[in-house]
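Quick one before lunch.
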Amino acid sequence: MMKKALTIAGSDSGGGAGIQADLKTFQELEVYGMSVLTAVTAQNTLGVQGVYPLPYEAVAKQLDSVLVDIGTDALKTGMLFDSEIIEIVAEKVKQYQLNTLVVDPVMIAKGGASLLQTEAILALRKSLLPLSFVTTPNIPEAEVLANMEITSQEDKKEAAKRIADFGVNNVLIKGGHEENADIASDLLFDGEHFHTFTSKRIQTENTHGTGCTFSAAITAELAKGASIFDAISVAKAFITDAITYDLHIGNGHGPTNHWAYKHKGVLDND
Ligand SMILES: Nc1ncnc2c1ncn2[C@@H]1O[C@H](COP(=O)(O)OP(=O)(O)OP(=O)(O)O)[C@@H](O)[C@H]1O
Ligand SMILES: Cc1ncc(COP(=O)(O)O)c(N)n1
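Model of the adenosine-5'-triphosphate complex:
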């Protein structure tokens, strides 16, 4: 039977990040994709022109509709906007006993627009992280969650441990923002050991939606029953291909190519 994955996130009208990136990734990795919208953004490759949160009732109702009838094998969160939405999601995760929760703690879009109110950090730490199987902060997000600066590999390890202390089983700190490195290296702390997942760093402006796509790929693989290690390995290959075959769409930071992982052969022959 086809496995199911749910994303709880914001809409990116430009199609590169948010709900749209998640559903494209679920489709490519062959799981049945479902979505609960938290907010609509007016967004393109140049930035975010508007943010419109949905009524709280709409978020709760979408969750009930999906979970009462269809259920899910894994779920992820992206843009959650404020603490009230975080509390609703946490309640529903408990109510429906959902164990395979991936929290991508989206805070700020590339151009600087806020996708999470500052007051919501506490709710993220106290209510959602303790219910999570894995969280995938980038470096600035890890700094906020762990309440420390990260300037070295040792700092990264310390931040991962501090975030794990909130009660999340696996912490994966992504290295996409280490722009001076010649590799893109992500650090996993599984509560006991550290592992790194590394690829070459690709020189491109077209990295809109990398974080969303990466966490969606992890979610899809977990839904299919993969271990955390195998899920991250596939997701790393998926995002590396998606960035390698980036799309030159729009006039700013273009999106990645969700099609590339499974269709490299066709793209190479183009
Ligand atoms: N230029 C790059 N070359 C190769 N891999 C990259 C590059 N940029 C990011 N990645 C990889 O993409 C994944 C997402 O990481 P990143 O740190 O960019 O997430 P993010 O900051 O949440 O995304 P965004 O920058 O889109 O908000 C990670 O596996 C990271 O290593
Ligand atoms: C609706 C929405 N959600 C999330 C992101 C962050 O995207 P990313 O960190 O993957 O670039 C975004 N730009 N828009």
